[in-house]
Design goal:
heterodimer; A: 10-stranded mixed β-sheet; two-stranded antiparallel sheet; 14 helices; globular; B: globular
């Protein structure tokens, strides 16, 4: 019998809010989480805005020993995972624990730790750094800390595919549960890239906006970085139903592709193949999809290419779709993006609200789709897709179905 | 003899286009020279480093960018203006 995979827990930290409910409220209100950055040396940046979760601090959340071991990325990953697991209400026996794992997508690593340790040795000339720099900065710190806190003893790892990291993580976790290799997987993404060194590096590519994030709008001026984490609890459907779990939605398909063309420029063909692959995997016809949470970075190249790919795949069904880029609200959370956006898809299906693309000023003939401008819309969303297209041309698309 | 700014800009463009400086003409445009978006970004970086200026260039919006990159000559003019503005 085919195993099906459902989401039974969901936790979120973003610039819109420090818990799922607040994140959802922000999405529904069309609130902007993007604002001026007040990080160290912000005056030396030409890009001075970001989707920074100002209210998120480790004090009061973690005890002292955890604070010394957790980079901001890990703090966010763990916070989202704690919420997801509490919501799922899972209690694992030893036999269940060894069949339960965690997969977290993170594009970078603990960059707050890297930035600060480099300041110490290079700028301040010190010859000693904190003893826990390595366990703080390693890319798998979040996945490992989640496994330790929640006693997840099965297959666990970290995925790093730039902006597709979280979608690849959730997709691989979906495969694990679907195939029977695991019964429960905690999956998502986390990223805290808003530190001086990372933004300075991104400035160099000349694709960052200095004013605001306006996906699909003709006057869009580039991406705005965000931060955050979202974590989903995935379970085999029969198990979830048997224990009476609340089901947020079903993950029913996962498609991956590689552009195999350019390290930064997106490809319509690669994007279209990933979308098609997700639909095929879900055994869904294109016209079943009601909503697409777009990659929608607000760069000139992505938005145009993504819309062309959607038209290519959906053909006559494309004008009936609602598309939105929630990055307009929470910023581009890089390795966490797909997880925050999976949360948006689950909200759309479970609460029948399509989140908007805010800051939309002016239609662009190259982005000729219903991009749900500026205001959320009530709609019965029976199925949704979430696109992630990474630098390096590694694409990952998730397909969801209403529970 | 060309002036120094012009020679330096041509050298920067030539390096990215994998041409010798003598093959680069002022009315050449980046596209015809085979310069892709990454090469343009590297040219802008080299100009900033060489002349100690900040170039107003956003790859998302080449049309309305304050820095005209439509030809090698335009880049030279734009660099001269930035250097002059620096005082």
């Amino acid at each position: 019998m085919t195993r099906r995979v459902v989401v039974t827990g969901l936790g979120v930290v973003s610039s819109l809010g420090l818990a799922r409910v607040e994140h959802f409220e922000g999405l529904k209100e069309g609130r902007s989480g993007i604002g001026p950055l007040t990080i160290t040396d912000a005056d030396r940046l030409s890009v001075k805005i970001g989707g920074y979760a100002d209210a998120f601090t480790p004090e009061g959340r973690f005890d002292r020993s955890d604070v010394s071991l957790f980079d901001r990325t890990t703090q966010m990953a763990v916070t989202a995972a704690d919420e997801a697991m509490a919501e799922a209400g899972v209690e694992l026996s030893e036999a269940e624990a060894v069949r339960s794992g965690v997969v977290i997508g993170t594009a970078l690593c603990g960059m707050e730790t890297v930035d600060s340790a480099y300041r110490t040795v290079f700028q301040e000339g010190k010859n000693r750094v904190h003893p826990f720099v390595v366990p703080r900065l390693m890319s798998n710190a979040g996945a490992s800390q989640i496994s330790m806190r929640h006693g997840l003893k099965g297959p666990s790892w970290t995925v790093s595919t730039a902006c597709s990291s979280a979608n690849h993580a959730i997709g691989q976790a979906f495969h694990m549960v679907k195939s029977g290799a695991s019964d429960l997987m905690v999956a998502g993404g986390a990223e805290a890239p808003l530190v001086f060194g990372v933004i300075k590096a991104w400035e160099g590519l000349r694709v960052m906006s200095r004013d605001n994030c306006r996906p699909f709008s003709k006057n869009r001026s580039g991406m705005v970085q965000g931060e955050g984490a979202a974590v989903l609890v995935l379970e085999e459907m029969g198990r979830a139903k048997a224990r009476g779990a609340t089901i947020w939605g079903e993950i029913c398909g996962f498609g991956m592709s590689a552009d195999a063309s350019d390290i930064v420029t997106p490809s319509q063909d690669g994007a279209a193949r990933a979308i098609n692959s997700a639909l095929t995997d879900a055994n869904m016809a294109a016209d079943e999809i009601r909503y697409i949470n777009a990659h929608g970075t607000a760069t000139a190249a992505n938005d145009k290419t993504e819309c062309a790919a959607i038209h290519q795949v959906f053909g006559p069904a494309a004008p009936k779709l609602s598309v939105s880029s929630t990055k307009s609200m929470h910023g581009h959370a890089i390795g966490a993006a797909g997880a925050l956006e999976a949360a948006a898809c689950l909200m759309a299906m479970s609460e029948s609200v399509i989140p908007p693309t805010i800051n939309f000023d002016e239609p662009d003939p190259d982005c000729n789709l219903d991009i749900t401008p500026n205001e959320a819309r009530d709609a019965d969303v029976s199925a949704a897709l979430s696109n992630s297209f990474a630098f390096g041309g590694l694409n990952a698309v998730l397909a969801f179905r209403k529970a | 003899m060309g002036d120094t700014t012009e020679e330096q800009v041509i050298a920067i463009v030539a390096e990215q286009a994998m041409l010798s400086a003598s093959e680069v003409k002022l009315d050449d445009n980046p596209e015809d020279m085979g310069l892709d978006s990454l090469a343009l970004v590297e040219i802008v970086f080299s100009i900033e480093e060489t002349f100690d200026v900040s170039v107003p260039f956003n790859a998302n919006d080449l049309a309305s960018s304050e820095f005209d990159i439509s030809s090698v000559g335009k880049i030279v003019e734009a660099v001269k203006a930035l250097v002059a503005a620096k005082g």
